[in-house]
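As described in the Methods, two query proteins were run sequentially through the folding procedure within a single session, without resetting any intermediate state between them. The first query and its resulting C-alpha cells are shown here.
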Amino acid sequence: MLAHADHPISAPVNDANVHKLMARAVVAPDSHVLDLGCGTGTWLQRLLAERPGTTGVGVDSGPRTVEAARRSAEELGLADRLTLHCLDAKEYRCERRADAVFCVGATHAFGGLRETVLGCAEHLAEGGTMLIGDGFWERPPGEATLRALDCTAEEYRDLHGTVELVEKLGWQVVYAHTSTLDEWDDYEWNWTGSLTRWALTNPGHEAAADALEEAARHRTAWLNGYRGTLGFVTMLLMRND
C-alpha cells in the first residue's frame, strides 16, 4: 500500500490507458464487473464513478488493502454498488456471473497466465470480456534479469507467445495495450519513491529501515535487472466460440 501511494494502479499503465482499456472492456451502462486481485479497488472505483448504473465486486487477499478499498468506496459514495471480499482469488465463488472480469497485474494469484485465463473464465457471463494484464519478455532475459526477478526464463513468453497461449485456450485478443518504457519508469519511480519518502518522513517507525532497504532492493532489481527486458501487456479477451 505504501509503495502504491502515488500510483494506485498496481501495474505499469497510466491513467489515460486505464480509462481506454475500461471503456473497451465495459460497454453496457448496467454492467456487472469483477476484479480478481483488486488491491485497493482503484480500477473498479474509477469505473463505477464514471458509470452510475454499473456494479462491481472486488477480491483481494490483503486485509489492509481490502479495508482501504472499503473506506475509499464509502468516501466516494460507491459502497452500495461495490462488494469487497478478502480472500484468495482462486477461492472466490461468484453468486452472479460478470459481464467483464479484470485481473491486471495479479496473475500470480492464480499461478500464471494460463491459470488466470481459466480461473477468470469461470466467473464470466456468456458474451462477456476479460481484461488480463501480465508480463512478457521484450527480449530474451539474461542472468541479471532472472536473478532480479527470481524466476526462470520459462516463467514468461515473448509477446507473440503470450498471445498464442491465450488463443490456444480458446480466446481472441480484441484489443491490447503494451506498456511503454515511460509507463514502466513512472510506475517504478513511484513504487520505490513512495516507499523511500515514507521511510524518510517516519524515521522513528519500526519499519522505516526495512522500507528503505526494500525500496533500494527493488530499485536495483529494476535498474540493473529487468528494465527494458520485462514488458507488460493488458489484453482484452473474448471467447472464440
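Immediately afterward, the second query was submitted; its sequence and C-alpha cells are:
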Amino acid sequence: MKKIHLFILFLIINFSGLALGSWLMGDVVTGEWYSNLNKAPWTPPGWVFGATWTLIMFCFSIYLTYLFSIRKSKFVMLIYSFSVLLNVSWNYVFFNQHLTVWGLVNITLLTLVIIYLFITFRSDYIQNLKYLLLPYIIWLCIATSLNAYIVFNN
C-alpha cells in the first residue's frame, strides 16, 4: 500500500509541476514572440507536447515510487526537488522572460540531472525500472535541440 501512496504523491507533484510551468509561461505560445521565432524544422505540432509530457510524468512517477521505496534519503529528495525546479522554471525563463540562452542552460541542467538518475541508481531491484526514464531523456534531448536551434538561429 505504501507504493500506491508514493505513486499518487509523485503523480500529484509531477503533474502539478507541469500545470505550474504551463501557467508561468502564460499565453506566449499563441503570441507574437513565439510565432516569430525561427523554430527548428523538427519542431513537433503542439499536441505532441501534451501527450509526451503525460507519458513522461507517468513513467517518471513509477520510477520515483520504486526509487523512494528503496532509497529514501535527503540526497535523493534534493535531486528530485532540483529536477522539479528546473522543469517548472524552464517554462518561465524561456517563454515568459524570453531568455532563450538561460532556457538552454536550464534545460541542459535538467537533462544532466535525469541522466544522473538513470546512471546512478541502479541496484538490482530498480535496474530495469531505470528504463522508465528513457522517454524523459529522449524528450529532453529533443527539447534541448529545439531550444539550441532557437538560440543559435535567431
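Residues 49 and 139 are 9 Å apart (CA to CA). We note this only descriptively and draw no conclusion about the first query from it.
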